[in-house]
Amino acid sequence: MVALRLKSPAVSSTDNGANSQKVTDIVKGVIDDIRANGDKAVRSYSEKFDKWSPESFKLSDAQIEEAISKVSPQTIADIKEAQRNVRTFAEAQRASIKDVEIEIQPGVFLGHRNNPIVTAGAYIPGGRYPLLASAHMTILTAKVAGVKHVIACTPPINNSIPNATVAAAHFAGADEIFILGGVQAVAAMSLGTETIRKVEFLAGPGNAFVAEAKRQLFGEMGIDLLAGPTEILIVADKDADPFTCATDLLSQAEHGPDSPAVLITESEEVGRETIRYIDEQLKTLVTAPVAGTAWRDYGEVVVVNDMDEAFRLADEYASEHVQIFTKQPREALEKMTNYGALFLGEKTCVSYGDKCIGTNHVLPTKKAGRYTGGLWVGKYLKTQTYQEVISDKASGELGRLCGRCSRAELFEGHARSGDLRSSKYLKDSYEWIDQARK
């Protein structure tokens, strides 16, 4: 039971209904236009929204090399180190996914193969910040899964090519890189145009318009998940450091003005001190206009009676990122199941996951952690079953069973497929077969 709320959100999650409908309508119009007019419409929206209309949205090899040459050696080294971490973990995940074949009875084989998607799209956001790490998470993970062709789209920043993002996409293994953003990029990859190949699956975070485009186009292609805005929740005991709590809450609040930042603690003192430190840090934080708005409108500090209640309440929030600041942080692995990702102990922070530690940062938000995990190599694989019966006796017996099961459901055509096998292999007699063979 909640003992005390030291801070509640100023904005209700239901306050933006009109804005949501506006986003839906705008996105539908863009998609319909691109569906009908292809590249012409893509160029029109790029000019309108990004003031960007190059001769070709696709970068040539020479342009990619030029972009990389403009990135500092340290940034290149950091990109490669972060990608090594992502690749190492993704490869371990891929190795854990096994093909299966069993003989469930003599002569009857069932199995599945984990086949990679052939073509995938990666959307790398870049409106407010150049999100290099999104290239690692979407492109590199797809390549480890075995995807043959990955298209990367990222918007221009300040009417120019985002060189560091291009470098990250290239080193991650992108087969084509387009400087194209927003709904027009998502629609172009999902539908295909004269110059942009249609993908079978699209991954990557984005703003409300990008998320809505993915929602509307889902079915024509697969998607990773509908994510956003970024969320953070900290579970803290009485010994947690309030300054660390404050710093880490603001680290995620700066993602956007609608990013929830929540502290659940058993200690009123920790809660009050965290609020004080947040107010103090906002005086000097460069991104305070964004982080401060998020904290004012969506920030929460909740005091509970004990840590068991803290874990139960955290599970109800099902937040994207959950940091555990307790003496025994691994306790959360047993007491929580609803989250995008756990960050255990004060030596671990969400920013590590966002940028460099190796786990994927495309994670479920808005309580989706109750029923799904985040992006990983498995999302790029199709687990596809197969069956083979090589025994006459087994096929005939299955035919008898199939006939009975099918007629119980009034599916006569299904039943006859079974009858035919039991007739062929067990010499069963059926009137319908005798009549049909005349």
Molecular structure report:
With 438 residues, this protein is α/β, with parallel strands linked by helices. It has three domains: 19-98 and 115-224, Rossmann fold (3-Layer(aba) Sandwich), CATH 3.40.50.1980; 229-374, Nitrogenase molybdenum iron protein domain (Rossmann fold, 3-Layer(aba) Sandwich); 391-436, no CATH class. It is built from 17 helices and 14 strands. The protein has helices spanning 17-37, 39-50, 61-69, 73-96, 132-145, 163-172, 182-191, 208-217, 242-253, 268-281, 288-298, 307-317, 331-335, 350-355, 392-408, 412-426, 431-436; strands at residues 2-7, 100-105, 108-116, 119-123, 149-154, 176-179, 201-203, 222-223, 232-236, 261-265, 299-304, 321-325, 341-344, 381-389. The strands form three sheets. A six-stranded mixed sheet has the order 1-11-10-9-12-13, with helices on both faces. Strand 9 (232-236), helix 9 and strand 10 (261-265) form a beta-alpha-beta unit. It is globular. The termini are far apart. The mean pLDDT is 96.
